Amino acid sequence: MMNIQNRNPDVEVLFEFNGARKNPIADGYSPSHLIKENYLTIGLHKYYEKEFVESNGTAKGTITFIVPEEYPGCLWVGKEIPFFEGEKKTGKAIIVKIYNKILGK
């Protein structure tokens, strides 16, 4: 498996954090994403022109998922993907653009 940090991003998104974290979120954050019903996967967040996002803030950026070939055809522009630290929901990502065609519905 290729290192997730060395791959091109899978999607461009608008991140919306919900204030569940006490501290700002650093570029490179890797929470679990509910990519489809009953399927969580890890994704690496990169934020445009920001090193940190406030815990209740928003940012545009990208997500690179681990093993996207395991969940093909599950994304579309406008889909909201919640993300979590353990059982705590920390925000959502709204799909703006899909770069990895295998993921597009």
Counting helices, strands and paired strands, the structural category is mainly beta
Number of strands: 8
Question: How would the global form be characterised?
Answer: globular
Note the main sheet.
Answer: 6 strands, antiparallel, barrel
The chain-level mean pLDDT equals 94
Low-confidence segments, ≥5 residues, pLDDT <50? none
Per DSSP, the total helix count is: 0
The proportion of strand residues reads: over 45%
Strand order of the largest sheet: 1-6-4-3-7-8
- Tell me the series of helices and strands, N- to C-terminal: EEEEEEEE
Helicity range: under 10%
The CA-CA distance between the termini, in Å, is 24 Å
Rg to the nearest angstrom? 13 Å
Could you explain how this protein is built, in words?
- With 105 residues, the chain is an all-beta fold.
- The protein is built from no helices and eight strands.
- The strands form two sheets. The protein has a six-stranded antiparallel beta barrel.
- The chain is globular, with a radius of gyration of 13 Å.
- The two termini are 24 Å apart.
- The mean pLDDT is 94.
